[in-house]
Design a protein that fits this description.
homotrimer; alpha+beta; Rossmann fold; Elongation Factor Tu (Ef-tu), domain 3; 15 strands
Amino acid sequence: MSKILVLQSDFGIVDGAVSAMIGVALSVDDSLKIFDLSHSISPFNIHEASYRLLQSLQYWPEGSVFVSVVDPGVGSKRNSVVVRTRENHIVVTPNNGTLSHLRKFIGIEEVYEIDVAKHRRKGASNQSYTFDGRDLYAYIGARLTSGQLSLVDVGPKLNEDQIVSFELPLSRFENNMVKGSVEIYDERFGSLWTSILVEDFNQLNPEYGDHFKVKILHEEVTYLEEDVLYGRAFNDVHVHDLILYVNSLNRIALALNQDSLVKKYGIGLGLDWKISITPIR
Amino acid sequence: MSKILVLQSDFGIVDGAVSAMIGVALSVDDSLKIFDLSHSISPFNIHEASYRLLQSLQYWPEGSVFVSVVDPGVGSKRNSVVVRTRENHIVVTPNNGTLSHLRKFIGIEEVYEIDVAKHRRKGASNQSYTFDGRDLYAYIGARLTSGQLSLVDVGPKLNEDQIVSFELPLSRFENNMVKGSVEIYDERFGSLWTSILVEDFNQLNPEYGDHFKVKILHEEVTYLEEDVLYGRAFNDVHVHDLILYVNSLNRIALALNQDSLVKKYGIGLGLDWKISITPIR
Amino acid sequence: MSKILVLQSDFGIVDGAVSAMIGVALSVDDSLKIFDLSHSISPFNIHEASYRLLQSLQYWPEGSVFVSVVDPGVGSKRNSVVVRTRENHIVVTPNNGTLSHLRKFIGIEEVYEIDVAKHRRKGASNQSYTFDGRDLYAYIGARLTSGQLSLVDVGPKLNEDQIVSFELPLSRFENNMVKGSVEIYDERFGSLWTSILVEDFNQLNPEYGDHFKVKILHEEVTYLEEDVLYGRAFNDVHVHDLILYVNSLNRIALALNQDSLVKKYGIGLGLDWKISITPIR
């Protein structure tokens, strides 16, 4: 057993919150190997948490345990789950939509509802209910990682459709065009990642160097409508020029070479930021 | 021995400074398990460093060694200490107030002054005096963690009252009211954490759903005066509404559900940001 | 073998990119000890990447493997290398200038060009070319760290002068004066680090407490011209006052005690931000 525990949250890394979670986990088993996915998920942004799990989970060894705590409902009646994915990663999380992408694109094999009364950290205050990341999720995640707790002892088994999921943007090929939504930013570089899957895009029989009409609409307003080159990577166009490419998650993306497309065009995210791509030949 | 070394500083994580500290520690013993508490303490903010130690230390395994370097006096005559807390955590730090909260709320069992001439890293430049984090604290912290150095060999034993401490804000129950100061932000979420301890607050016999008059004063100006509901967690009130709750350190806190109270009311931190809480019945 | 792998990039720590790299590395060998140098290198800033390697590499145990991915040319024809430094650290990086400082100030013993076709991660998409950090560098870095791959099997051996290098700023003593450039910021504290080496400065026979005329010029405009005290560390002058000192890399630096010199004087970085220092006696 590789004893790998990976933490994700919207807590940031400024204060001592993440450190308290790590301390709790090491107090369960000081031989755990603990890593961060990201603690910079935008506060309360469950969609982002869900996407980041999709972005990185698949690259980790089988059996790795992920604890994701983006939890606007902390202290309320929302339930919490532990799931095993089709690729044998374990995820511990509030059942609030955080598993939407994994459920759709990877698949969930088993779901257990956490019996909170049984699995809350011993010694946790009975008057403080705002830090389940420390008092519940890191604790049970560490016990699962160390082998002290088995999946089946987490709590009642649920059906896969009891996982709370968001509606995710589509990827569609039709009429010599692909359509989808602008799903997330590559924030550091200002690129746009769409929901369009490479297999749909490939139905347009694209070749590097081809040009496409790319259009981005939001509430019937056109934010971008450009002739864009399809390339392998940013350097296939001049600095500041637009490029259409396949991103590192095999989805279609749009960028300016060494510049921020997000800032230049003021494009937002979500189901209603629609993008269409049509070959120009 | 679990060989856990935890680093805290105000160095940020942008440049190579923290990495140099980790490298020095691993050069002492490459089997050390090294973690970060936070490197985003506001520059020179010793109060924050002190608070973050209180916030996380208690959750780590006994014997864990903490190195905290918020050190505006680097290169000056200020001395440096290694202490053992009542809960058997070791802290290495400049003796500049960083231990104020631990001393008051956890307790310090032993204090040793670092014999700098003896424990400075071999090979450290004798003309560079601005990075004791690397050349002294990480080095001696690693030697203590690895067992190469014993506490008693750190240097002269000091009395507990030779630990430099700041005046900390009070928590007081009197006349059917609790009083304290606004001590620190939960910055990521914009909440206020006060110095009022839950045991003092409990003398008001609060029940979830009760209302309290909360007043925040600074230099005789009232910054906030509101009727606030006492709840378990944020979701007990509507989004953007005020809530009074017990935070994850068993102190009374004030927040807006999914919104930033700090920004909305412009409230500062410190002894002279006074808060009072009175039941409304 | 200590199996230490250290990652540097300009990817930031907000999304799942760094986590994907760590996952790939642990999938190669889950006993690797993985650390971060920094992932906050300014986007595309190869000079900064090069400097940060100089700043921290030398403090790590011999045999540690560093993967540095600041790679504006990702997906283009630029080649990639693995080098061994004179101090026996291994660096994996695009051959784009990232090794400039190490080559000049530490020395490179061996250089191998990565045979990309052979060493690209199995399972990497053959239509996604924008994340060599995950699909090439972290993967080969992990294989080198684990001992699964030897240096000589990386690819063709190159000569040391085939390492792409930038022109680096000078450090020069002449006519009772030292000259150089403002090379980098200590961003967290707003100090300026120059290219002037302490051994050149020492030819002025400085003593703590001496005063120097410090002048910073950019395109014939004077940005700073002040009488500055030479001290050991910041506390040798009053808060907000200027101090000249030897920084933690044995170069001459300039700061305001507990204040940001960078903001106050609006000074930039690079070869053409020239600084001269002359004794006042």
